[in-house]
Amino acid sequence: MPESIMQRVRQQVLAVEPGKLINYADLVTEPSQFGAVAAALSRLIREGLVVRYAKGQYYRPQTSRFGTLPLSEGAILCTLTTEKGVVSAYLTGAALYNQLGLTTQVPATIKVTSPKPRRTRPKRVAFVVRPAPERASDVPLLQWLEVLRDLRRIPDARPNDVLARVQRFVKALAPAERRRLVELASHQAPPRARAVLGALLELQGDKHGAASLRATINPLTTYRLGLSTAALPNAPQWHIR
Predict the structure, then answer these.
(1) What is the average pLDDT across 230-241?
(2) In the prediction, which pLDDT does 56 show?
(3) Can you give the residue range of the structural domain that contains 177?
(4) Strands 57-59 and 67-69
(5) Are residues 54 and 78 in the same domain?
(6) How many domains does the structure of the chain reveal?
(7) Domain end: 17, 47, 69, which one?
(8) pLDDT confidence of 154, banded at 50, 70, 90?
(9) How confident is the model over 71-87, as a mean pLDDT?
(10) N or C: which end of the chain has fewer CB within 10 A?
């Protein structure tokens, strides 16, 4: 292996903040260097300078008086949800619901969206297929649509309580954000989520948004979500039980 490649890879690795993932693509500048870079990384692993996290991904370990620290969830998420500085995915599942204060459970595996199925996955990560966000500002809206999608399946959370949180979020949105939420729901949310969002918008006086969502659902379908009429007074009109 040319010593210059070994030195370059070592310098690149040392320049990266400990605990931050390094992609193989960050280190290979030309296809012909693939083997040399792989050999350099193998040597650095033996030296303890880097740790292999998953295929093509490495990190400089952080150490404390108790030993080497595991890779942080934040570092994992940053790598999995951004591509060349652009947001390409987002956190969902129980880890998201914990962040939002909807559940106290901390999952052993985090769930991240992916625009296509993945055959391999890093440790402690699961993927669910969703379209990539068109822009970063869509991510919070898409995540609250995930909440509506899993309304009955959020650990240690009652559907009525979850709905109250969604209602506060929707009410606080600016008009443009609310219109974007309706647009995203119309194309990406399942019918049950669209029905609940439509009912909430109707209660909040957004007739146009509610009508837009009503037009996307089957009027003969009933959605059994465990919600009370006290929590959602117009639930029967949206066939929500």
Answers:
(1) 96
(2) 79
(3) 73-238
(4) unpaired
(5) no
(6) 2
(7) 69
(8) very high
(9) 79
(10) C
Span of 65-69, 206-210, 212-216 with lowest mean pLDDT: 65-69
Is the same domain home to 101 and 189? Answer: yes
pLDDT at position 3, please?
A: 62
CATH number at residue 56: 1.10.10.10
Query: What b-and-e string marks burial along 88-104, b requiring 16 or more CB atoms within 10 Å of the CB?
Result: ebbbbbbbbbbebebbe
The residue among 23, 50, 69 that closes a domain is 69
Inter-CA distances, 152 with 147, 219, 228, Å: 9, 21, 13
| Tokens 């039980």, located at residue | 241
Residue 228 pLDDT > 60, yes or no?
yes
d(CA 233, CA 203): 8
Residue 62 shares a structural domain with residue 139: no
Can you say how many angstroms the Cα of residue 123 is from the centroid of all Cα atoms in its chain?
16
